[in-house]
Design goal:
Layout (H helix, E strand, L loop, with lengths): L1 H17 L16 E4 L3 E2 L6 H18 L3 E2 L6 E17 L5 E16 L7 E12 L4 H25 L3
Helix pairs in contact: 2-3
Length: about 170
């Protein structure tokens, strides 16, 4: 009886340790679509911040590397992802009595094109937007790097979910 109980406990522990779940929302058939080509997104917004493009492209490739088993290739890829940063600008928010803004909004829009060369009905083209407000007592230069990181994370996650999830 004791041996059976210990065997059941060990089996339960072994089984529970080998199960893993991934909650990133990706639903990919790797046999059908094993490869992806993510082209660099260029900054075509009127306001250009030099490190924005590099930060965005690194984040995009990192998210796909960490959350999928897709192999990167430029030769006959199963999936293709490309686009451009089309908006990166400031807008005054919460105007006070003295006609000065108490807050400023930094907005970033990214247009992307996704092609599934194995299943063209999944192709899509969308524009994703994100913004962050900051106190007008700060200059853009003081908060820009942190805001870019936040905006990039938000937009890349939205692109990932829009392209890799079949909800």
């Amino acid at each position: 009886m004791k041996k059976a109980l210990w065997a059941a406990i060990i089996s339960l522990i072994t089984i529970s340790c080998s199960v893993s779940y991934k909650f990133n929302g990706a639903s990919i058939n790797y046999q059908e679509t094993p490869t992806i080509d993510i082209r660099d997104f260029l900054n075509q917004a009127p306001l250009v911040y030099p490190s924005l493009t590099q930060t965005f492209n690194e984040r995009m490739k990192d998210v796909f590397t960490r959350n999928t088993k897709l192999q990167f290739t430029t030769v006959n890829p199963s999936l293709e992802l490309e686009g451009e940063i089309v908006r990166y600008d400031l807008t005054p928010q919460a105007v006070q009595e003295n006609n000065l803004a108490a807050q400023t909004r930094l907005t970033m829009n990214v247009r992307f094109r996704y092609r599934n060369n194995k299943n063209p009905q999944e192709d899509k083209e969308e524009t994703i937007s994100a913004y962050r407000d900051f106190s007008s007592s700060y200059t853009l230069e003081q908060v820009q790097d942190d805001l870019i990181k936040q905006l990039t994370e938000d937009i890349v996650d939205q692109i990932f979910n829009a392209t890799m999830s079949n909800w």
